[in-house]
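Render this sequence as a predicted structure.
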Amino acid sequence: MRLGHFCTSLLTGAFFVCMFFERASAQAPSPALREVIAALDSTAPLLAEARAEMAQARAAWTGSRAFPNPALFATQEALNDAANTTERVLGVRQNFGFLWSYSAQSGAARAAYDVEQARYIEARQALAAEVAIQAYEFDRLMRQIAAMDSVLAQAERLAAATSARRVAGDAAPYDELRIQLEVIQLQQQRVELEREAHAVLTELVTLTGRNADELSALRLFVFKAPDFATEADAANFAHEHRAVLTEVKRNEDAGRKTLAAAKWNQLPDFSLGIGTKAVVPGDGGVYFEGELEIPLWSQRRSARHAAASALYGAERARSAVLTNVDQEVHSAFKQWQLVETLSADSHPDLADSAIVNMGRGARLYLEGEMAALELIDALRTGIEAQDAALKMRNAVAEARVNLRRAVGLDILEN
């Protein structure tokens, strides 16, 4: 009678564990993960340096559009004539040599800012993808830990009952020892799951800049599958939207304009001045001056050569980056196709199968047709089935996220 009561409790517990996780998987998607990803701009430490680089580039662009300040000048000169005449001039002088390269330098600075902006977007999309993948992995580990705790509780109760049966002469010492070894193995697996979960949580804290308590309660949402019929469609989308391609294109533009500015800077400088002139003794008047600087040799030729070399490197880099993007899209698209096919056709809901098998095992144990060790094996199989289902769920999410990142589609867009 006591054995029947124990097995009834075991059966109830097994069904409770599986039904709990089935309900947990069916919960409505929570915006928690979405909010964490959306807030990465302000919370993620890894983006701080990219934000600083972007701010510096914007400041440089603003500075490139400014005109140089005019300069005040004053002179006094004794003419050493018979009347001991002294000439005094007070005026303003403005350099206009910057106008040669003003447009090119301003355009180059704007392109450099666009480069940093695209670089920031690329870094943010990569970070958002990693956060999403790690969040799904942490959820899987926590679900496995909860399932392991429930199975461990049932296994420990079974071990205690087997010990009592061995004392009463209804079970062999070998059965008691085997069950105890199974409990130890389950405990070791539980410790390993805890270690893995702690490592993933630590990584999430580093990536997001949030505290562990917030991330421990993080709930997921379902990532939409990208709408690409063929790999060519995905590649064409990437060519238009991938931030790293925008980066190399604008870097090439910056190189061209920097080279143009270096060429314009080889032209002579000139300045104009205007002021008032006083002559003592005598009358004063308005003072004008113009200055044209024609160097005997140019010291700015090295800047032109450096700009030409930088432009050549930017042109070569664009071709290499385009090849890399096409390869990333190819790999991500193939992986996405494979995972979507497997999840839809080859892998039915393993969690439902685990519920049936665990319930069947408990009934067989009650009827005396299954040994205690076989029942523990059924419980272990249930955990493995749930883990397989969660890993397939994670694989689908990761494939969708990676394809979105490869083509430049924000992972939060529908």
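Summary. Residues 1-31 have pLDDT under 50 and may be disordered. The first helix runs from residue 2 to 25.
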